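Milestone 3.1: sequence recovery, worked example.
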C-alpha cells in the first residue's frame, strides 16, 4: 500500500533493507523494542508483529498498543507449555486487550474460538471467513498448482485477487490481510497490489518442480490441524499419488504424535515417517509414538534419517505425484541432542532429483 513496513515473525525479521534470521517468533522485550527502534531509524512507518502465545504469557509485549490485532485460528499446539487448549486460547486473547482506543479486532469468524472473540469485541470487530455473515468474505474461488483466483466482498466493495499462493489457509491469510488493510482505511486497489506482489512464502506450501511432472512441496505443517489442511489442499490438485514425509519434534507435546500419524495414513497414498527436530529425545521413540496412530503397513515407510527419507520420496515418485515434506518449512537446520546442524530441504530435494 506504499507504506514502508517492517516485519517480525517466525520466518524472519525484516528491518529496512535487512533480513535477519528469527531466533523467536516474538523476541524478548529488550530485543523487540530494539528491532522496532531500528525500523524507526529506517523510516518504516508501520510494523507487522507476529505475537506468539509464549510472548503473551511471558510478558514480552507488555506495554505495547496495537492499531489492529488479527486472530487467525486456534488448534492443538504448545500443550507442553499451556495446561490445556482453553488456557492457550485465553493467552492468545490477551492480544485484544492491548488494542489502542479505536483499534480493530480482525477475527476469523469461521473459527469456534474466533466467534468468542467476535462476541467479546463486537463494537470493534472486523470479521472474515467463508460464512455469509463475515464482513470480508469469499464469494467464489478457483485453485490449481499455479495459484488461486479469489472473488471477495468487503465493507469497501468487491475485490478480485489472483495469487500464486495455494491452499484454503492462505485464503484465510489473505482475508485477514484485507481486514487489516480496511482497519487502517487503505484503498482496495492498494491492498490488491500488495497481496498480488507476494509470489511465495518460504516454507509455506513452497513448490519445487523436480522431474517428470513431479512436484515437491515444503511446508511448516507440524500440528495435526496444519498437516490435515496441507494434505487436503494438495489432494485437490494432485494428478497421481500424494507422498508425505513427516515427523514430530522432540521435547514437545507427545499427544499429537499418533494423531499426526493417523492423519497422514488416512489422507496420503504413502506416508514416510521420519525425524523432525528430535532435540534431546531418541528419534526411534518419537517414531514409535507416531506409529501408534497408524495401522496400514502397506502405506508406511519408516526411515529415521530425514535426509534419506526425502531422498527415498524423490526416488519412488512417479509422473503426476506430489511429495509433501512437512514439519520444518523455512527452517535451515535440524536440532539433534541440543546441536543445530545445517539442513536445507530445498537443496536436499534438488540434489536428490539430480541423482534419482
Amino acid at each position: 500500500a506504499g507504506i514502508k513496513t517492517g516485519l517480525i515473525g517466525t520466518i524472519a525479521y525484516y528491518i529496512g533493507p535487512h533480513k535477519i534470521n528469527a531466533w523467536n517468533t516474538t523476541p524478548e522485550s529488550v530485543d523487540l523494542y530494539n528491532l522496532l527502534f531500528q525500523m524507526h531509524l529506517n523510516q518504516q512507518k508501520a510494523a507487522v508483529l507476529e505475537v506468539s502465545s509464549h510472548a503473551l504469557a511471558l510478558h514480552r509485549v507488555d506495554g505495547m498498543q496495537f492499531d489492529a490485532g488479527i486472530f487467525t485460528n486456534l488448534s492443538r499446539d504448545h500443550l507442553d507449555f499451556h495446561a490445556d487448549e482453553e488456557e492457550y486460547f485465553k493467552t492468545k486473547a490477551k492480544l485484544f486487550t492491548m488494542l489502542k482506543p479505536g483499534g480493530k479486532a480482525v477475527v476469523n469468524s469461521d473459527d469456534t474460538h474466533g466467534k468468542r472473540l467476535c462476541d467479546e469485541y463486537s463494537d470493534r470487530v472486523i470479521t472474515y471467513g467463508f460464512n455469509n455473515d463475515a464482513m470480508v468474505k469469499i464469494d467464489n474461488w478457483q485453485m490449481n498448482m499455479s495459484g488461486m483466483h479469489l472473488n471477495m466482498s468487503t465493507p469497501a466493495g468487491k475485490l478480485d485477487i489472483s495469487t500464486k499462493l495455494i491452499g484454503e489457509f492462505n485464503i484465510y491469510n489473505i482475508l485477514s490481510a484485507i481486514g487489516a488493510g480496511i482497519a487502517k482505511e487503505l484503498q482496495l486497489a492498494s491492498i490488491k497490489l500488495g497481496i498480488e506482489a507476494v509470489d511465495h512464502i518460504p516454507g509455506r506450501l513452497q513448490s519445487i518442480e523436480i522431474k517428470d511432472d513431479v512436484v515437491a512441496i515444503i511446508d511448516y505443517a507440524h500440528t495435526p490441524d496444519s498437516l490435515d489442511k496441507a494434505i487436503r489442499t494438495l489432494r485437490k490438485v494432485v494428478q497421481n499419488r500424494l507422498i508425505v514425509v513427516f515427523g514430530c519434534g522432540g521435547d514437545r507435546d507427545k499427544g499429537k504424535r499418533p494423531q499426526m500419524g493417523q492423519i497422514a495414513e488416512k489422507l496420503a497414498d504413502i506416508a514416510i515417517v521420519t525425524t523432525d527436530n528430535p532435540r534431546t529425545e531418541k528419534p526411534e521413540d518419537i517414531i514409535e509414538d507416531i506409529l501408534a496412530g497408524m495401522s496400514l503397513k502397506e502405506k508406511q515407510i519408516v526411515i529415521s534419517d530425514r535426509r534419506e527419507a526425502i531422498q527415498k520420496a524423490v526416488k519412488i515418485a512417479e509422473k503426476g505425484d506430489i511429495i509433501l515434506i512437512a514439519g520444518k518449512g523455512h527452517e535451515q537446520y535440524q536440532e539433534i541432542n541440543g546441536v543445530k546442524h545445517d539442513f536445507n530441504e530445498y537443496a536436499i530435494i534438488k540434489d536428490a532429483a539430480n541423482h534419482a
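DSSP finds eleven helices and 18 strands in the chain. The first strand starts at residue 5 and ends at 8.
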